[in-house]
Amino acid sequence: MGTPGGDLIRVMAAGDRDAFARFYDRYAPLVFPFVLRIVRDRADAADVLQDVFWEAWRGAAAYDSARGTPEAWIITRARTRAIDRVRAVRRRGETFVAPVDEATVGAPTPPGGDAAVRAEERQLVASALAQLSQAQREIIELAYYSGLTQREIAERLEQPLGTVKTRIRLALARLREAVTPT
Amino acid sequence: MSHEPFETLAAVYAAGALDGDDLAQFEAHLPGCAECQAAVREAQDTLARAMLSARPQTPLPAVREALVRRVERTRGAGRRAWLTWAAATAVVAAVAAGFTATWVAVRYEARLGQMARETAAVKERLARNEAALQEQVALYRGAVELLRDPATRVVDLRGQGTAASASGRMIWNDAGGGHLFVAGLPPAPAGKTYALWTISGGTPRAAGLFGVDASGRSAHRIAPEVARGAVGVFAVTLEPEGGTPAPTGPIVLASK
Ligand SMILES: [Zn+2]
Question: Which of A66, A58, A65 lies closest to B192 in space, CA to CA?
């Protein structure tokens, strides 16, 4: 049984431009806050969003509903592109982008960032994540928003690797409860 | 080794944080384990739903506009190019006479009726699916209208090479454009798309890109603007996504 999002992707794969517009209208307002949360700059977020949806249009034919939901399909692209963007901006050193992980664990936000983005910070934290404990949210954010691997997280938090793995698993289990309609 | 450690690795993998030996070990295990595949899928879906649960924010309209413009350009956007490629297939076509236009019109009208019934059945189920079907109905209706014009030709296309079992039918009007119906074509591989070319005087002209559905079928409308001058040959090639100005890939369908 198809989902509305999956049907849109299938029609898009056939080259239907209206389906693309509907797909964009459905998912862009959801993906945008997520991308903004990672790149923390509206212009960068807009660029990333464009890349993500362009890739979705070009790659629609490769979507396989057996391998994941449309939401997972689009968010995986968005995450990869957004993290790439943060790393590229840091490498170029053109703009100082506050490392998301520092901000989320409570380090002082360096001056010169996008004030509007900082002001909206609270709203950008996905509401399902807000239902996790502080420690659980932190570990999901380090992995998913900041793109750190388990070893990097273990170093950052000064915790054994095994503990980090278990915490990720437990945090995901809790998250599943948070997103499962009751 | 018990399976339990893999369940933890599946969660870390889904969160994109697996590395080192754990990653190598899990990636070796994953293809053969339906349980872990399901666990990864579920965890990725959980993360996606969580990440998309922030308060929606509509990005600037300029982003949408730029994308829509870009998407419009991906279809039928071939520039003129003059390749010797065409010379091989550019024989001025004798119109395939196997079917008269009237007979074909009857067939398509029957299909129209069937699609109208399908549309009604789907209506309750899914509005978006219905929109897609309605578009198809409009397409068939356009084909039937075109067939009523005495100047309209019906040209059969035959599968070539690895797509020998494919077939196509072009309903073509030099002034009004055309409709291409394709069957038996394998879905284009990732990164590829099918491209239709109209060839007149040895010159291929891009006539749009299309994909096929899971059953290998496709219905592709060719706008009147594309129909400039008498077309001799129609051909379909496999091209990189986004199209190319001139045919580069293998020919999968061609008229005589
Ligand atoms: Zn397993």
Answer: A58
A51 to chain B: closest CA residue? B67
- The structural domain count of chain B equals 2
Residues B109 and B197 in one domain: no
Query: For B141-190, how does the pLDDT look when each residue is reduced to its tens digit (9 = 90+)?
Result: 777 777 777 778 888 898 888 888 888 888 888 878 888 888 889 888 88
Contact list, B187 vs chain A (CB under 8 Å): 61
* Model confidence pLDDT, tens digit, residues A96-149: 444 444 333 333 344 444 555 555 555 556 678 888 999 999 999 999 999 999
CA distance B128 to B119: 11
Distance CA B24, CA B31 (A): 12
Of B9, B59, B218, the CB nearest to A46: B59
Fold of A113-179: Arc Repressor Mutant, subunit A (1.10.10)
Q: What's the rounded Cα separation, in Å, for the pair A66 and A176?
A: 20
The rounded distance, in Å, linking the Cα atoms of B158 and A81 is 42
**Residue in B12, B54, B66 nearest the CB of A123:** B54
Distance CA A52, CA A47 (A): 9
Q: What is the DSSP string of B3-65?
A: SHHHHHHHHHHHTT---HHHHHHHHHHGGG-HHHHHHHHHHHHHHHHHHTTSPP-PPPHHHHH
Return the residue in A165, A166, A182 with the most chain B beta carbons within 10 A, the one to mutate for interface testing.
A165
Same domain flag for B160 and B110: no
B20, burial (CB in 10 Å: exposed 0-12, middle 13-18, buried 19+):
exposed
Q: Are residue B105 and residue B190 in the same domain, yes or no?
A: no
As a whole number of angstroms, the distance between CA A61 and CA A58 comes to 8
Q: Would you call B220 exposed, middle or buried from its count of C-beta atoms within 10 A (0-12, 13-18, 19+)? A: buried
**Does B82 share its domain with B165?**
no
Residue B9 makes CB contacts below 8 A (sequence gap 6+) with: A165, B18, B22, B25, B26, B36
> How far is ligand 1, taken at its centre, from the CA of residue A143, in Å?
22
Q: Exposed (0-12), middle (13-18) or buried (19+): which is A53, by Cβ within 10 Å?
A: buried
pTM value is 0.55
The minimum CA-CA distance between B150 and chain A, rounded to whole Å, is: 30
Structural domain of B195? 153-254
Domain limits of chain A? 4-93, 113-179
Top CATH class of A4-93 equals: mainly alpha
What is the C-alpha separation between B147 and A80, in angstroms, rounded?
49
Instruction: Select from A50, A41, A43, A103 the least CA-distant residue to A77.
Output: A50
